[in-house]
Amino acid sequence: QLQASGGGLVQAGGSLRLSCTASGRTFSDYAMGWFRRSPEKEREFVAAISRAGTVRDYGDSVKGRFTISRDNAKNTVHLRMNSLKPEDTAVYYCAADYTVTGAAHTSSDHYEAWGQGTQVTVSS
After folding, report:
1. What sign for the dihedral angle of Cα 58, 108, 54, 90?
2. Is 31 helix (H, G, I), strand (E, B) or coil?
């Protein structure tokens, strides 16, 4: 089970940190990802991190602005979002890839469990 939090309303140029807490499985066994969906776009890959945190990948639209991290002792993955833009407005979902590899996948096809989503709204 995944529980996302941290969304809200922020002005353009501001920052937010999203968190996702997992339960039910050994957190350090699987990779985690963040995706987002807005009325204008299909589900879009945002960021992913491997189970040990050694591999990270980002969508092109967020590279250099967002940072994914994880704390395996607390079963939590974070998404730090800086320099937010109005086009970052979306519902953000965390997801778990239970395949036991060292990869951080960008395709949603690899993810088996999804959180409920948290709304991020960036005003101009």
Report:
1. positive
2. strand
Mean pLDDT of the chain: 95
pLDDT at 123 over 90: yes
Look up residue 114 and give its two tokens: 């999804």
Whether residue 82 is predicted with pLDDT greater than 80 in this model: the reply is: yes
Amino acid code (one letter) for 111: Y
Summary count for the chain: helices (H), strands (E): 0, 11
